[in-house]
Sequence to fold (176 residues):
Amino acid sequence: MAILKVARLGHPVLRQIAPPVEPEAIQGAEIQHLIDDMIETMREYDGIGIAAPQVHVSKQIAVIEAKGSRRYPDAPDIPLTVLINLEVTPLAPDLEDDWEGCLSLIDFRGKTPRYRQVRAKALDRQGHPVEFVATEFHARVLQHERDHLLGKVFIDRMPSFETLSYLSEFARYWNH
Ligand code: NI
Fold:
């Protein structure tokens, strides 16, 4: 396994629409190694999700996990989940504003509206279909990662940049 270099905002790969993975390719060594490296990279940098475009691979793969994150100490636990060809559908029109960050905009936090409840459909790392409903923080993480596969980052979803903050100022003035 290897820790991969994370693409930062400005790298064109973050703005490309990632193509889906052919289901027959999922069990192959290339995709399996990539998934292992994405998990290791996410854990190394204390992320709670990472999408393949963030490690310079334009493919529809994301991994998420939240467990005692130093970057998100208040985050509820999310089990390790591998999501290939992820689709996210809102289940209700209500949006919720909350703080978001990203390993590709490592120094920033900003309040970002997201749907409160979504349905996620994807393939797991064995290529089996998975489908589940997620709410609040879990739903937010799924929408954030789905956006990476569409060439979007969280600041694209902010209606205003008034809350956009460096991490140290976020911790000092906003995190209470
Ligand atoms: Ni991100």
